[in-house]
Amino acid sequence: LRESTMLMLIIGMSLLYAYVMSYLHISQSAAAAIVAMQLSKWVLLVTILALVIVLGFFLPPVSIILMTAPIILPPLKAAGFDLVWFGVVMTITMEMGLIHPPVGLNIFVIKNIAPDIPLSNIIWGTLPFVILMAVAILILCLVPGIAMWLPNTLLPTTR
To answer: What does the mean pLDDT of the chain come to?
Structure first.
């Protein structure tokens, strides 16, 4: 009961935090500022992914998508990125933000599930996964066909 209550409190507070950030237009303003910089194609992508990682520290993925997608998708499409591919990359990036120290939400969820494990051990335990996710994002950027193989196979007429 105690662990479930703590998990629900963490999730509830993250949703409240997402609502406050949305109400104050913090995420939208940050995304709009990035788009207004008129960056090159790959610098724009790296900047947006960095914003998504930082937002992933504090917000659940659904909130990040709802707050930033309407602002960042048109410039990405205009830069020539496939939006399905970007969705795959953004999903991995958001999940990386959830386990990335120092503020990743899932780190504290794990701490509440296993209170006998020190927080430092949990943080050090997440770092290999953060590194693997970063490598996966890099590979997906270099070889976008990996992410697009299944959609192109299932829906060959739309791609």
So the answer is: 83
Query: How far is it, in rounded angstroms, from Cα 52 to Cα 38?
Result: 18
- 1-25, pLDDT tens digit by residue? 776 776 677 677 767 777 777 787 7
What single-letter amino acid sits at 143?
A: V
Longest dimension (CA), the chain: 53
Q: How far apart are CA 122 and CA 20, in angstroms?
A: 29
Range of the domain at 40: 2-154
How far, in Å, CA of 62 to CA of 80, rounded?
24
In a domain, 7, yes or no: yes
In a domain, residue 29? The reply is: yes
Q: Which two tokens stand for residue 97?
A: 């933000």
**Tens of pLDDT, residues 107-127:** 888 888 888 999 889 889 889
Identify whether 66 is part of a domain.
Answer: yes
Number of domains in the chain: 1
* Residue 159 in domain: no
For residue 78, which of 41, 106, 27, 114 has the smallest C-alpha distance? 41
Rounded distance, CA 21 to CA 18, Å?
5
Task: Calculate the CA dihedral of residues 121, 126, 127, 132 and round it to 10 degrees.
Answer: 150
